[in-house]
Amino acid sequence: MSVPLLPPGAPRLGLGLAALGRPGYINLGHGQDLGAEKDVEALRARAWAVLDAAWEAGLRYFDAARSYGRAEEFLGGWLRERGHAAAVGSKWGYTYTANWRTDAETHEVKNHTLATLERQWPETLEVLDRPDVYLIHSATLDTGVLEDEGVLARLAELAAEGVRVGLSTSGPGQAGTLRKALAVRVDGLNPFSVVQATWNLLEPSAGEVLAEAHAAGWGVVVKEAVANGRLTLRGQVPSALADLCQELRATPDAIALAAALAQPWADVVLSGATTVQQLQDNLAALRLTLAASTLDDLAQPPERYWGERAGLAWT
Description:
Blueprint: E1 13-16, H1 30-34, H2 40-56, E2 61-63, H3 71-82, E3 87-92, E4 94-96, E5 108-110, H4 114-128, E6 133-139, H5 149-160, E7 164-169, H6 174-182, E8 192-198, H7 207-215, E9 219-223, H8 239-248, H9 252-261, E10 268-271, H10 276-283, H11 302-310
Parallel strand pairs: 1-2, 1-10, 2-3, 3-6, 6-7, 7-8, 8-9, 9-10
Antiparallel strand pairs: 4-5
Organism: Deinococcus carri
Domain NADP-dependent oxidoreductase: 45-297
Protein name: NADP-dependent oxidoreductase domain-containing protein
């Protein structure tokens, strides 16, 4: 049995700061949500407002990454200022390069080498303190990170010190990447014990292997449950989802999050809210009870889903 990711009694909904820590992101309508004020202090105030609302609602899992602009800094400062203790996850492997611009040609650069890990772990400690969970950011088979003996040995050291290490996944090969991670061994033991993966009504292909990870005692965190805004009123809501919204008197985002929460292997499902109102809408998911198979017919081929996601604009 694994150590729970959440304190007793906490909702299984968490808050991810991918859209709160930088002025540009790929959620539909992100630029509109931020408005004209996109300087550091304006985004810090916005992030803290959403964090305050999340805390008031009982949320106790918060997710950041080195590449989310100043998300780690915002989260760490908020935790210290408010005196809160919560479960915190972060990630290494991408470097933020947009320099606070929304029109940057490249917003983040991926590098899964030991040198990046050794640089970014101290950077995280400096602004966020020691995270409970530390993940390889968007691990894929092609980077070779799951075969890098130096990286795996260093992550095993962090695991021995009490940090829950693992990986996040993305792309049409999520299942294959996670299966390889489940087989990793360092001195006979697997240092990994957490996975954060994309799962939503349009892209549920990793569900089977996420169930395997859960059964193996891993913590499972779901990201992108609203498909970067495609499963909200800003997207082209599928008719079956629209009908269910009318039946349940709920918004598409709430149903999409509730569908993820209905998966028996999901320990935490992340909201990616950019505003307090979006968070309030997302929180309605906690009041919905859906079957795990709800709206199964919305699933797209993974290659199609990830191809469309790659075409989303940074705003």
